[in-house]
Amino acid sequence: RRVITAVIMAGGSGTRLWPLSRAGHPKQFLALHGDKTMLQQTAARLSDLPVSESITICNEEHRFFVAEQLREIDALGKIILEPVGRNTAPAIALTALLENENDPLLLVLAADHVIADQSAFTDAVLKAVPLAETGKLVTFGIVPSEPHTGYGYIEAGDPVAGAYFVASFKEKPDSATAAEYLGHGGYYWNSGMFMFKASRYIHELKTHRPDIAAACEKAVGTVSPD
C-alpha cells in the first residue's frame, strides 16, 4: 500500500471565534471538542492510515504551541514555519517542493476540523489513493445537511472510480442559492482537504500560478538543511 505524507495546515488565525480564539492563540490550539486540542485531534485522526510522517505548517509565532501539543500525543514530525501567512496554495507548495525527491502522496488537512466519523474519514482517504496515484488532484466533499452559507460548494460532474470529476467550485453562496444547491443535489460542502502527488501539484502550480511557484522555489532554496 502506498505510503502517505500528511500535511497539516495550522496557520489560521481563528478570528471567527474571537474572543475565545485570538491571533496569538487561534482555535486549532484549543480543546473545543473533548480533551485534545483540534490540532491534536487532526494528528490522531491519521492513526488508521498508512501515513509515513506528518508535516505541520504554521506561523512562526506558533511554533512552540505546535511542537508541544504534538509532542504530548507522540506525533511530532517536521514543522514548516511561515514568517507571514500566505494561504493554502503556497503552504502546500513549500511542502511539495521540500518533499518532491520521493514524490509522495500528500494528504492535505486543516488543523481545525471536527470529524465525528473516523471510519468514514479513513475510508474516504483510502478510496482517494488510487485516484491520486494516477495523477489526479483529489478534493474531499461533505454531503450537506442544510443550506449553509458559511462553506464553499463543489459541484459534482461525471463519475470516476467511486468518485466524481469536479464540474465547478462555488464560492460561499447566499441563502437562496444554498437552498437551490441542496434541492438540486450533486453539490457538496468544500472541506478544504486534498490528496495528490507532490510532483503533480508542482506541475499544476507552475502552469497556473508560476508567480507563486517561483516565490516558493526561492523560499525553499534559502531553507537550511538543519
Structural commentary:
The chain has 226 residues and is of the alpha/beta class. It has seven helices and eight strands. It has helices spanning 38-44, 63-72, 88-99, 118-133, 175-184, 198-208, 210-221, and strands at residues 4-9, 51-59, 78-82, 105-110, 138-142, 153-160, 163-170, 187-197. Strands 1, 2, 3, 4, 5, 6, 7 and 8 form an eight-stranded mixed β-sheet that branches. α3 (88-99) packs across α7. The longest helix has 16 residues, at 118-133. The radius of gyration is 18 Å and the shape is globular. The protein starts with a strand and ends in a 5-residue tail after the last helix.
Summary tags:
single chain; 226 residues; alpha/beta; 7 helices; 8 strands; 35% helix
What is the mean pLDDT?
89
Question: From N to C, what is the helix and strand string?
Answer: EHEHEHEHEEEHEHH
Q: What is the overall silhouette?
A: globular
Low-confidence stretches: 13-23
Estimated radius of gyration: 18 Å
Helix percent band: 25-40%
Count of DSSP strands: 8
- Overall structural class, as computed from helix and strand content, comes to alpha/beta
Instruction: Please work out how many helical segments DSSP would assign.
Output: 7
**Beta content:** 25-35%
**For the terminal residues, how far apart are their CA atoms?**
31 Å
User: Could you give a short account of the major beta sheet?
Assistant: 8 strands, mixed
